[in-house]
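Researcher: Structure prediction, please.
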Amino acid sequence: MKVNLVILILVLLLFISLGVQAASEAEVLKDIFRKESASLESLFADSFLEQVSLTQIEAIVNQYGSALGAVQAAEKTENGYSLQFEKGTAPAQITLNEEGKIIGLWFGNYSLAEDNLDTILAELKELPGELSVSVIKNNQVKVLSYNEQKLMAVGSTFKLHVLKKLYEEIEDSDKSWSDIVELGAENRSLPSGILQSWSLGTPLTLRSLSNLMISQSDNTATDHLIDFLGRENLEDGLKDINIPFLKTREFFMLKFSDDDQLRDCLLYTS
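Model: Predicted structure follows.
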């Protein structure tokens, strides 16, 4: 009887401990978006700050806060947490050490609460200039279209092609979203984004690079993924007008070149 009682007490203590841990993680996640810059550093372990600077953390937090507003809750999910903001949600994962300091942190792509295709198209139509939109799922299902026959420069939407190829590479090979790529000088580009100011050699997972490529249109993240996937892989199936498949760094080098002929090459890269 005493043995059973001891086991029961241990089980209860375990559940209480897990409950306190989950509550602490949720509170720390909310504190990240509530703390002033001066006190944000106190949430992180020294080992984390040695890998990621406070400036980099603030840039990410500000980006999510600007898009989503104030944080309201952190709800536990199967894969981590769902952060609830005024204007939307974002997935998150967090790991704390014994002192309650952050030693692991990840934020996924956010979703706006009132986003839908009709709203997006209406907002696009309000922009100045010409508009052409074509959204096709897996080259089969037409999701959204407007003035689609007009050929126009695609801008940063080419990054969706990079993302699709990355998904295919991970699905069809032994590559993983957790694979590490180190920031290199040869793939450092100009803004938009934040990685152009990060230290060379900083390790980033493929998931982190893809998140930054899409959420912030990060050019340096994009060029690292293009290098990882390979130019020939990305050019496979594209029309000649999209070959060679330029990195953003190469685009800027052409754009700001003193050579008129090189600048003219941009006419064939859009």
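Model: The chain has two domains: 2-112, 153-268.
Researcher: Thanks, that helps.
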